[in-house]
Amino acid sequence: MQDYWNDSQDTEDKQLRVPDAIADLSFRIECRGGLVVDHAYALYSEISRVLPWFETEADVALHTLHGAESGNGWLRPYKADELLHLSKRTRLRLRLSKSRFEDAKHLVGQTLNIGDCTININRPTIRALSTQTTLLTRALVAENTQSENEFLHQATEMLNAKGIHPQRMMGGRQHAIKTADKTLYTRSLMIVDLAFDESIRLQQNGLGEHQKLGCGIFLPHKSIDAVYQVRKDQS
Fold first, then answer.
1. 3-state DSSP call for residue 136?
2. CATH T-level assignment (fold) for domain 130-234
3. Cα–Cα distance between 119 and 129 in angstroms, integer?
4. Which residues of the chain does CATH 3.30.70.1210 include?
5. Whole-angstrom Cα distance, residue 233 to residue 113?
6. Is pTM, for the whole model, over 0.90?
7. Helical H runs in 28-171?
8. What's the topology of domain 22-127?
């Protein structure tokens, strides 16, 4: 597999203030029953049922639910119909403008039903965007037939259009997301050593379509070890 990796950029640790106009509202949840890996559309639909504005609001995003990658010999499943068993530390997170925080708190006390899984929503906390300049999105919409080089080229063009010029990127795991009428094909993407302002803008705005299904939402990522492990597993 080909990496997009340019070491010519010097990076600095900048102690800059993170703006708070957009942040994650992070809800404690209680889950009963296993949650299917491919739950993005069902989760989006349930949240839109409780929060009707969520369906039509332009600048909102939804993190899908993820358990630990591994622990006590347990590996996180990846097949669409396999079940996740979420721990008490799992949070439901919406990325929103702070003007919508109070509206989103109407989720508290509600129960979301996703297949055989019930999710009870408890009180949230506000989680600011990260100061990290290495970011990961678990899913960026791609073409099913794309090579990794083609995917990285597409991602570069999308980033450049936003005034973001990546020096180091790496594509990762592929997976599909089923909606009511189609299947989306996605691939994970890690971007290393962004400028601080680029990192903030990317976290605030995301990249590409279907952010309400967990696509193109960027999280801080401190190490490339996990990505290389994925590559090793796939080779």
1. strand
2. Alpha-Beta Plaits (3.30.70)
3. 25
4. 130-234
5. 33
6. no
7. 40-50, 52-56, 101-104, 148-161
8. Alpha-Beta Plaits (3.30.70)
Rounded mean pLDDT, 143-158: 94
Q: Tokens standing for 94?
A: 């919406």
- Token digits of residue 64: 């899908």
Q: Can you say whether the dihedral through the CA atoms of 217, 137, 19, 101 is positive or negative?
A: positive
pLDDT at 184: 97
Angle value at C-alpha 37, between 49 and 158, nearest 5 degrees:
80
User: 62 by DSSP, 3-state: which?
Assistant: strand
For the chain, residues classed under CATH 3.30.70.1890 are 22-127
Lowest mean pLDDT among 2-16, 72-86, 91-105, 204-218: 2-16
Q: How confident is the model at residue 232 (pLDDT cuts 50, 70, 90)?
A: very low
Is the pLDDT score of 88 beyond 90?
no
Tell me the residue length of the chain: 235
Neighbours of 54 (CB within 10 A): 20
The CA distance from 147 to 2, in Å, is 9
